[in-house]
Amino acid sequence: MVNVVDSLKLPVMIFIGLILALYPIVSQADSPAAKPILEIPSPRHDAGTHWEGEVVSHTYQVKNTGSEVLRILSVKPG
């Protein structure tokens, strides 16, 4: 009669070998370089003095320095 532990040794060793072989691939996918990274070169802007009711606007440059798509889902002022 074949021992159950002996019959499971080979599949378990193959499974462990696959995990060790695939670990570098999986760990690179979770690295910061594989994610979107929001960069705003000049995050502050002084709008100066204006009259009440006067419309003031400023355009901020936004850059994605990561390797995945950056999705901006909402923006809230200051």
* Physical arrangement of strands within the biggest beta sheet: 1-2
The overall number of domains is: 1
E-strand count: 2
Rounded Rg: 27 Å
Q: What does the main sheet amount to? A: 2 strands, antiparallel
* Euclidean distance between termini CA atoms: 74 Å
Question: Strand percentage, roughly?
Answer: 5-15%
Structural class: mainly alpha
Low-confidence stretches at least 5 residues in length (pLDDT < 50)? none
Q: Helix proportion of residues, in percent?
A: 25-40%
Q: Average the pLDDT over all residues and give the rounded result.
A: 77
Shape: rod-shaped
Concise description?
The chain is mainly alpha-helical and 78 residues long. The protein contains 1 helix and 2 strands; from the N terminus they run αββ. The chain has a two-stranded antiparallel sheet with strand order 1-2.
